């Protein structure tokens, strides 16, 4: 049902949509990271055994200094950042291998600065195209042009690339010892053991007593639930995502292509010389039943944009059926005084989607997870790593939370509001968007300041053998 907009509020809506469009196309607020002085980490960091691993053995109970739960972007980036600072960590992953599914992640300046800091950016840059600009269209008349932008003109120095999730995870994992990740290690329960640490019980019966636990176990985090966080909130729209393959080379310029309809928006962006990422975001009152049939998923996605520009449809048809996913969009707003703390007792702390799931409307979920990783690693290393006493570890975790909350709360809220605005179905608002807001009012530069996150390189500490 279309949303009615009273006439007195139409100008306000138009202004709001202008801001929403600018941020939805690129990103969102806010702060910069002030790095610690170089060199402190080597002096104060404390090495864990190089073969920090959680392996199934004859003894069902083992002890670890630091355990990271979850081998996603946040978990692996945190493990890599800690290792570069001389602090070992064991990583638990419930799957039997790194996540091979998913499509791609769009990374902006802030994400690339973190990848530079932990030493993996250049290897990824060599694989993926740098996006040069953006084209915005309406689905009317086969794709009427509304506006075209150049990043160099609108936001000089901005670095935007879409990266395959699978390749990013593999790259991060390659920087860890082969035994650092324990697969098929699904968490069953977690309990406090006083000064001894935190006890993790796995589904296969193993028990791990860890001095520090870092929860990077994703949107539906059991650790966040144990710490008292609410379930993520469904925001009223869903997304199809896919990764098209062109064995002989994809034909598109390195630009983001956006198409705005009424209650439905879509886009595609070249990822590499042979792959193109695409998405559709559409309104739905509830997520509905899960669809597991790949052919049905692809068919439903194509039906949503039937009659839209032919290049979008061609990209979608060039996508293997197994490379299409449909997910509900969710978030969790960390209201001050209402949300639980991100850490508990100086023993357990959250990072990434486990703490602050956000909608992808600003393209900042993965970037924020990477930021969390480098900030948390530095705080823990400065406190002495796993050798920190309870008070030191607690202070480090609280400092991490204070620094990150000031960034992720407004960012999560803004992403949610942007999504609500650009998904409106009201005909008058959409006409104003296409006729006035996009052609005349949208400016990208001011809305990209949040990507100016800075951090020094994490200079590798000597590793034990």
TrEMBL record:
Residues covered by the FAD-binding domain: 66-408
Range of residues in the leader sequence: 1-24
A Pfam match: FAD_binding_3
Alphabetized GO MF terms: FAD binding; monooxygenase activity
Region Disordered, residue ranges: 35-56
Family: Belongs to the 3-hydroxybenzoate 6-hydroxylase family.
Protein name per UniProt: FAD-binding domain-containing protein
Annotated source species: Miscanthus lutarioriparius
């Amino acid at each position: 049902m279309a949303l009615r907009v009273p006439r007195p509020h139409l100008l306000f809506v138009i202004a709001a949509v202008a801001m929403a469009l600018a941020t939805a196309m690129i990103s969102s607020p806010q702060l910069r990271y002030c790095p610690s002085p170089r060199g402190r980490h080597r002096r104060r960091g404390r090495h864990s055994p190089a073969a920090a691993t959680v392996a199934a053995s004859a003894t069902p109970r083992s002890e670890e200094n630091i355990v990271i739960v979850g081998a996603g972007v946040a978990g692996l980036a945190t493990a890599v950042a800690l290792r570069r600072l001389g602090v070992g960590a064991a990583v638990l992953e419930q799957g039997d291998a790194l996540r091979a599914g998913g499509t791609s992640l769009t990374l902006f300046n802030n994400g690339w600065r973190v990848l530079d800091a932990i030493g993996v950016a250049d290897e990824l840059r060599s694989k993926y195209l740098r996006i040069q600009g953006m084209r915005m269209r309406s689905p009317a008349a086969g794709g009427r042009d509304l506006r075209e932008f150049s990043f160099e003109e609108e936001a000089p120095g901005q670095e935007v690339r879409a990266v395959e999730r699978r390749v990013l995870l593999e790259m991060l994992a390659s920087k860890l010892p082969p035994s650092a990740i324990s697969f098929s290690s699904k968490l069953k329960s977690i309990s406090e053991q006083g000064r001894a640490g935190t006890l993790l019980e796995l589904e296969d019966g193993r028990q791990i007593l860890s001095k520090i636990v870092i929860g990077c176990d994703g949107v539906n985090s059991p650790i966040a639930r144990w710490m008292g966080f609410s379930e993520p909130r469904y925001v009223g729209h869903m997304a199809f995502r896919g990764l098209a393959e062109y064995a002989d080379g994809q034909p598109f310029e390195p630009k983001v292509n956006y198409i705005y309809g009424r209650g439905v928006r879509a886009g595609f962006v070249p990822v590499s010389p042979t792959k193109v990422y695409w998405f559709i975001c559409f309104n739905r009152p509830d997520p509905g039943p899960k669809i597991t049939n790949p052919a049905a998923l692809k068919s439903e996605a194509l039906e949503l944009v039937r009659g839209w520009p032919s290049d979008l449809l061609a990209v979608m048809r060039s996508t293997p059926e197994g490379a299409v996913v449909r997910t509900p969009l969710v978030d969790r707003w960390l209201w001050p005084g209402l949300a639980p703390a991100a850490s508990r007792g100086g023993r357990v702390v959250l990072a990434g989607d486990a703490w602050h799931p956000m909608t992808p409307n600003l393209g900042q979920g993965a970037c924020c997870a990477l930021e969390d990783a480098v900030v948390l690693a530095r705080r823990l290393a400065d406190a002495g790593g796993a050798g920190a006493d309870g008070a030191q570890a607690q202070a480090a975790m609280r400092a991490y939370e204070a620094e990150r909350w000031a960034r992720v709360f407004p960012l999560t809220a803004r992403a949610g509001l942007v999504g609500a605005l650009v998904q409106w179905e009201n005909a008058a608002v959409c006409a104003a968007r296409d006729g006035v807001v996009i052609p005349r009012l949208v400016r990208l530069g001011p809305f990209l300041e949040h990507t100016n996150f800075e951090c020094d390189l994490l200079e590798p500490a000597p590793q034990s053998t």
